[in-house]
Specification:
Chain lengths: ~350, ~290
């Protein structure tokens, strides 16, 4: 019964490859967008991988100008793009259209060879990270937004971890009246939509002078995460062998020392996992940042605003999203075990 | 020498919980109460049970946003779980590369929502990658203009995007849930002459029920709060949702007293709906706990 028939095997491989293609192809195209220059963006059909080089054909003109031609790959061959003798214009064109940062005079001297040898193709290596640099240059306060996002995530981790693990320890280790009620309250707080809190929170933060600050934002992001941290850590504190703690107490350590040297190291994985959750809340949110900030935006909000209603320059926004995606992706993969538990009580 | 203060042992848990308690009173309970107060205070500052609700009922796109949110939450979850369940059942047999599949399948949901929106926006442009694929596999002869969609089509498109984001992860959760299922049970059922449908209905589905119900409710709660993808792909007001309206009144028409009231009332409504879903979730998980004991 365990042996699979050829039919079953074929079917499984078919399903598997379909799933993988459906997930990966959009991601690959997106990655390609983030590395495409303006000229590639106008090409249709799109290619799955961005080009690594740019090739132009240069035809010298009698009046000292150069005609630049580009092959869009549509089978029409080279199309004339620009005819000029100005180094400045060339430099601008190469930067804007191909994402190449080459000095105009240098371009002129490179192309001067065509005066002797006739029309010629030139291939330049693309600056792969051009869109990324451009994103941080073109989009206002993208740099400070990146800094803000890191700060607000760190603050959220700090608040949630301190308060949450204290609560988690209490819930795990002590039997006291109202324990069940606390568990339910924590769950309700955790599920409560942050958008419902953000609007009235704006008024409170203005009163406290914390509107448009990262602390104000972190105070909001910590609300679900304190509850989540206490939930995750309490399940770990329950599992930590009490005998170890008792032994430490017998050997003369006080409660704080025992907690610091014995319990905390053992609970570290759970704390790391809940920290990553806190990070993700702060890093991924847009709606609360939209409501609670004005000038001090976070990266996610800046990326949201960068796209606007037009689609020109979308490759820069795509590059910005890649910056946004990488930490989120890495942390989610690390804590996927907890995601499984939270979602469906399964081990992944 | 200072005298060491000794706390009664019963006080320790309360002391540990006190900071959290204080935090939640200031930053959760207080905003919630002041939010509710705003909702039941009229423009002139006096108490009014219905004034803001009348305002919201008569505002543009109110019923559409409620309807869109409901249909988005319902149909996206149904679609995602049907596909995921089907795939999970087909893939429960151990196969080479299941770890790699798990990793790949988890990627879409790990992306920051704004990034997912840009990913799909680059795809849905007329000269975007989706048309490239559709032309390549001969599903269409002419590039389709996706960005002009309106009404139900817009919601349908967003459901489709959400399905791409969520279904693979749900599938992984369900596969993990199915692996906990004992194979002997299935084999015994086979021996006693159960049909495939009976095995599915009487053995697989009950085994999956706990992981399905929990995750469906969590997923629904997230789906009710959809907004960024709608605004980023289609712009405001094309596919209005509850939270999309909150963002609209804050970002697009800020500083007006009515839009402030509308934002409060919309976020209040969203919170009430999510709260009810949470209570429902609590009741179900409680029932399951009782059953398993």
């Amino acid at each position: 019964m365990n042996k699979l028939s050829i039919l079953e095997k074929t079917m499984i491989s078919l399903i598997l490859s379909t799933i993988i293609l459906v997930v990966l192809i959009p991601l690959l195209f997106f990655l390609s967008t983030a590395f495409s220059n303006a000229t590639e963006m106008t090409v249709f059909p799109k290619s799955l991988f961005a080009k690594r080089n740019v090739t132009v054909k240069v035809v010298p003109q009698d009046d000292g100008k150069y005609e630049i031609l580009y092959d869009y790959g549509k089978g029409e061959g080279y199309t004339s793009i620009i005819t000029t003798s100005s180094g400045e214009k060339l430099e601008k064109h190469f930067q804007r259209q191909y994402g190449l940062m080459i000095n105009g005079d240098k371009l002129l001297s490179i192309f001067s060879i065509t005066r002797d040898e006739g029309p010629k193709e030139f291939t330049f290596k693309k600056d792969l990270f051009y869109n990324f640099k451009e994103f941080f240059k073109v989009v206002p306060n993208a740099k400070s937004a990146l800094k803000n996002s890191i700060i607000v995530a760190a603050l959220t981790i700090l608040i949630s971890l301190t308060l949450g693990s204290m609560a988690g320890y209490a819930i795990a280790r002590y039997r006291f009246t109202g324990r069940k009620g606390i568990n339910i309250t924590l769950l309700i707080v955790r599920m409560f939509p942050t958008v419902g809190l953000s609007v009235p929170m704006a008024v409170i933060l203005i009163k406290m002078g914390l509107f448009d600050t990262m602390i104000g934002l972190a105070l909001l992001y910590s609300i679900p995460n304190i509850a989540l941290t206490s939930w995750i850590t309490s399940s770990i504190f329950v599992g930590i062998n009490k005998n170890l703690e008792e032994a430490s107490l017998i050997f003369g350590a006080n409660r704080l020392q025992t907690f610091w040297h014995i319990t905390l190291p053992l609970a570290f994985p759970a704390m790391a996992a809940s920290s990553m959750y806190s990070f993700l809340t702060a890093w991924n949110d847009t709606i609360s940042a939209l409501i609670l900030t004005n000038k001090n935006q976070t990266l996610s909000l800046v990326v949201y605003k960068a796209i606007g209603s037009s689609s020109s320059g979308i490759q820069y926004a795509a590059a910005g999203s890649i910056v946004l995606i990488i930490p989120a992706l890495v942390f989610t993969m690390i804590i996927r075990k907890y995601i499984g538990q939270m979602w469906g009580g399964v081990k992944l | 020498m200072s005298k060491r203060i000794r706390f009664p042992k019963q006080a320790i848990p309360y002391m540990l919980l006190a900071p959290v308690f204080l935090y939640y009173v200031i930053f959760w309970l207080y905003p919630v109460i002041s939010g509710v107060k705003e909702v039941f205070t009229g423009m002139d500052g006096s108490f009014s049970l219905t004034q803001n609700f009348k305002l919201i009922f008569h505002s543009d796109l109110f019923s559409k946003s409620v309807w869109d949110t409901a249909s988005f939450a319902f149909f996206s979850v149904v679609l995602e779980y049907l596909i995921a369940l089907l795939l999970a059942i087909l893939l429960t047999i151990p196969f080479v590369g299941s770890k790699a599949l798990m990793f790949i399948a988890m990627i879409p949901m790990s992306l920051t929502p704004t990034a997912t929106a840009i990913l799909w926006k680059t795809g849905l442009l007329k000269d975007g990658w989706l048309n490239t694929i559709l032309l390549f596999i001969h599903l269409t002869k002419e590039p389709i203009t996706f960005m002009n969609v309106e009404g139900l089509d817009a919601v349908r498109m967003l459901i489709f995007i959400d399905a791409w984001t969520v279904t693979p992860s749900v599938m992984i959760i369900l596969i993990a849930g199915l692996q906990g299922l004992q194979n002997d049970q299935k084999e015994a059922a086979y021996l006693f002459g159960a049909s495939k449908w009976q095995i599915f209905h009487d053995i697989i589905l009950p085994a999956l029920k706990p992981s399905i119900t929990t995750s469906i409710i969590i997923r629904m709660i997230a789906a009710i709060q959809v907004w960024a993808i709608s605004v980023m792909v289609l712009g405001y007001s094309t596919a209005p949702f509850l939270v999309e309206r909150v963002a609209f009144y804050i970002e697009a028409i800020p500083g007006v007293e009515t839009s402030k009231k509308l934002a409060y009332t919309y976020s209040f409504l969203t919170s009430v709906i999510v709260f009810l879903a949470t209570v429902f979730y609590l009741r179900i998980t409680k029932k399951e706990e009782e059953q398993s004991i």
